[in-house]
Amino acid sequence: MHAVLWPHSLSRQTRRLVLNSNLLTAPFRSFHSLSAMYTPKDQPSQNSKVLIFGSGNFGSCLASHLGDSQHDVYMWGRDKNIVDHFNNHHRNPMYLRDHQFPTNITAVGPELPDKNFMDKMDVLLFAIPTQFLRKNLLILQPQFNVQNMPLLIFVNKGIEIGTHALTLEIIADTCGPQIAKAATFISGPSFAKEIVERQPTSVSVASFTESEANKASALFHQPHFRCYTGRDPIGIELSGALKNVYAIAAGMSDGLGFQNNTRAMIITRGLAEMTCIGTAYGASPLTFLGLAGVGDLFLTCSSSNSRNYTVGYRLGQGESLDIIMETLGSVAEGVSTTKGVRTIIEELGVTAPIASSVYDVLYNDKDTRVAVRELMELPPSRELELPPTAGGPAQQLLRKLGLRAMDVA
């Protein structure tokens, strides 16, 4: 047992909540969670074979980054025209169209790869929208060789409609707890265009299995792309999903003509809401102060390159959601995520007025100006306060995964 040295500014309640949430992210007594039949594949020191599921904006940029790092990359796409065009010209006709991709990237599809192909891979990376993940994992799961399992990496951000499940739970439901426990998640402030331009970028890499997080970090880490590992995949997932909701709010504010004061308010209060929701769910509140939390929140709330910000901006300009979604040209996960967030807020009993207002604008046809006015007319309240209880949903998910956390000081 080791003593914990707390900053004097932390209240007793805050310290207790941090300890409780750390129960979910502390090192485990042993990896009994990975049974004898599950064996992760050893990763080569260089030239890994990587299969990326998804040829969209982010999947393409990660393919370029890994190809640039001298790995052999295969990028699956469901559109035969994109696959053929990419292989003929080393360009993606839909995303990052001005970028010339490395020649060591091969597009595959539209059929999903078979078992023989996947057995040759060192890494399987999933960059497909959350709403389509369950369907594809159900198809792929019989092809997995759990006795020689590739490193699994997930970069999608969102909450599944209907089930309100995080990606971690989708993996557990479709592939079993062994695979879910070893899955690795990458999130952080990382626009695709800037990654392919080799602009300095940093991300969070998290897994319940620390060795797998270290493998993913080593795979991606470059002088222009720094990786920081952690053991709170639940917090990383919630951060990546929740920040999209607040990016829509920031876009609406800018679309209405409000300026810097208002945007700063939305970012700061959005972070407070994210931390409250995440802590009540069972994540560590400290995760929301990292790259996947405040880092990604700041990025998506302050740039027109963000799809979710763009949705909000156009709503603030008076366009209908149907027209925006028809003409956006890519998936804005925050629109579907807002539904799941609303349900989670109600189930947890936490107060998140900005997220609730975004839901009302998207799904109850509330006028954006009315939503802003009602937010500003709320009575005064305490600025920073964590929820009185924490951990219920995350503890249920841990039980589903068969995980047991050790006591901490």
Automatic annotation (TrEMBL):
The active site is at residue 243. Keywords: NAD, Oxidoreductase. The keyword DNA-binding does not apply. NAD(+) binds at residues 54-59, 132, 192, 307. Residues 49-210 form the Glycerol-3-phosphate dehydrogenase NAD-dependent N-terminal domain. One of its GO terms (cellular component) is cytosol. The keyword Iron does not apply. It comes from the Eukaryota. Signal peptide: none annotated. It catalyses: sn-glycerol 3-phosphate + NAD(+) = dihydroxyacetone phosphate + NADH + H(+). Residues 232-372 form the Glycerol-3-phosphate dehydrogenase NAD-dependent C-terminal domain. It is an enzyme of class 1 (oxidoreductase). GO terms for molecular function: glycerol-3-phosphate dehydrogenase (NAD+) activity; NAD binding. Belongs to the NAD-dependent glycerol-3-phosphate dehydrogenase family. This is Glycerol-3-phosphate dehydrogenase [NAD(+)]. It comes from Collybia nuda.
